[in-house]
Each structure stands twice: as C-alpha cells, then as structure tokens.
Amino acid sequence: MKFIVGNWKMNGNMENKEALLKSLKNLRTNNKVILCLPFTLLYGNNYGTIIGAQDISEHDNGAYTGDISGQMLKDADVKYVIVGHSERRANHNETNAIVKAKATAAIKNGIIPIICIGENATEKNSGRTMSVIKKMLLESVPAKGEYIIAYEPRWAIGSGKTPTNEEIATAFETIMKALHGIKRENVALLYGGSVNAKNAAQIASIKNVDGLLVGGASLKSDTFLPIIKSID
Length: 232
Ligand code: PGA
Hints:
Elements: E1 3-7, H1 14-25, E2 32-36, E3 50-53, H2 70-75, E4 80-83, H3 86-91, H4 96-108, E5 112-117, H5 121-125, H6 129-140, E6 147-151, H7 165-178, E7 187-192, H8 200-204, E8 211-214, H9 221-231
The structure holds 2-phosphoglycolic acid.
C-alpha cells in the first residue's frame, strides 16, 4: 500500500470534484488515496474518498479573518492537511516555526499533517540540499504525534523536472536519519514534484518512499487514475 495524495491547489469546482470522486469510487486499488481540496470543496458528498485540506490555522478560534481552524476541518470530516507547502512558505511567508505550529494544531484535532519540505534551485545548485531539508525538518516537525513528511524540491514542482532516483533516495535517507528516534512504521514519507503516470511507479519504488504527492496530474481522472493504477 502506498499513499497517493492529490493536491488541487487553487483549482477546481463542485462539478470537477464530483466527476473525479465518482471515478475514484469505482476504482479498485490497494493504495490509500487522499484528495486535498480547496476549503470551499471540503463539505458535501465525498463518495468515500479520504479528504484532506491544504492549510490550517495554528489558532483554535477567534479574530483571525479568513483563516480556518482545526476544529472547523474536523467538523468537515477532514482527515489530513498539507502544511508548509512551498507555495505557502513563499507566498504567505510561512516559516518553519509557523509550519510546526500548524502541524501541532492539526494533531491536536486528530488530523494528520502532511508536512512539506524541500530545497529551492539555488540551494540545490550550491550543494546545500541535505542541510536545507534537515533544518526544515528539525524546525517544522512537532515533537510528538502522527504525521507524514512530503519531500518536494521546489524546483521540481510544476516544472516537469524530477530529481534522479539516487537524489531522491539520498534525501529520504537524510530525512530518516534526521528523524532519529522515530520508528519507521510511525512515519510515512512522500515524494512530490512533477509526478505523472510515466514516472510514478519508478519513484514509488525507491527505498523509503511510502507514496506520492501529486499536484497538476491529480485534477482529472484521466491523469490521476493512471498514476494510482501504475502503483498497484
Ligand atoms: P506538481 O505539484 O505535481 O504539479 O508538480 C506538486 C505539489 O506542489 O504538491
């Protein structure tokens, strides 16, 4: 069983959601499929698919206009939430400390955070990938609770580029070492960034990769279902 997590980002409407979830309902798979939708699409008939959100407030409630709390997500039957996606780190100035607070808020509400880390192109080109992801990991991950780590190199997101198998394997080894003390069975590690039906099975077979985080290719059944099937 591998995790296949779709991240719709700021895309899609009710009609698109219905169409994809209906096709997922008829799919027989051993994988655990989770669809992380925009807030407006969380409620409603989800046809049995596990639903996730893309952000969570670090606060419980109160004067935080526009934010959505863990209690609200729980009320919408959300089981997972992406935190610290590179687009939120870049566009909303989310620091490792904020990401950690958000992950902690999720855990407090019984929601499993999918904590994203990953180096940018400049960091990669200057040979700092491992030190960057290690620092992000140590500063973004709460001390206790169940969570998932998604390694998403920023330069690979939406670019059609992916790291080599060796680079992914080394990154995941670094992650496991940095999480020392954590039992392997208590943490799932995902790769994300330009995953498609052609590369999914190969990436998912790399040591320590427990699943994939899929952006653009998760929007439609004709690109998402072949990814899920290719890993069965
Ligand atoms: P992508 O996005 O699959 O479109 O590269 C992945 C992500 O940002 O989670």
